[in-house]
Amino acid sequence: MKLKFYTLATLLLVCLFAFSSCEKEQLIRNTPSAQPLEGLDYLRAMNTPSILFQFEAVNTFTGDREGWLIDEEGNLRTYENAGGAITSMNTERELNKLLNASAVIEAVDVDALVEHFRNNSSLAALALTNEATSVTSDTEISYYGYHMRYAEQQCSSCNTVGANKETSDAYIERFVLEKTGEQFSYRADERARAAVEWLKALGESMN
Fold it and tell me: What's the pTM?
């Protein structure tokens, strides 16, 4: 009698284990895998500055400037003689002065925007190539990229989901992708060249 009881108990345990394994396997099969963020979902989830790219033309004699920029929502915005100076190191307050003085013209292809913006942090670390030019012009033409820059101890979490762009150890860096003036300055990396060509195409489409 005891033998039959132990045999029955063993069979029940085997059945329960098999059922549990099947249920777990089914749960794994039905659990959707995490999908990479794309488009505006990527820009809204990541720690992005308010401005991602900028074109600017400056009259070197009068100081007058005009241009356009692409904001973190994928809007192309134009401005003329906007107040507030943008330098290589900025805060959101300085960028907002330029944003507030600009007007939305159209939306850009967000997938293309994300493709180029993903490279900004690594491109900013590359050296500029400077070449002499024989072209004489009163206008300096610049194409810029923007990215968040952190203190060295924070670099492991740069541009991550949920990071806070208002932290005191972070600032927004504007860096030159290409500049034409007294000399021709550019970043030779093919990703930088592709970004500039994309920006130039956007500018031409506005004319």
Answer: 0.76
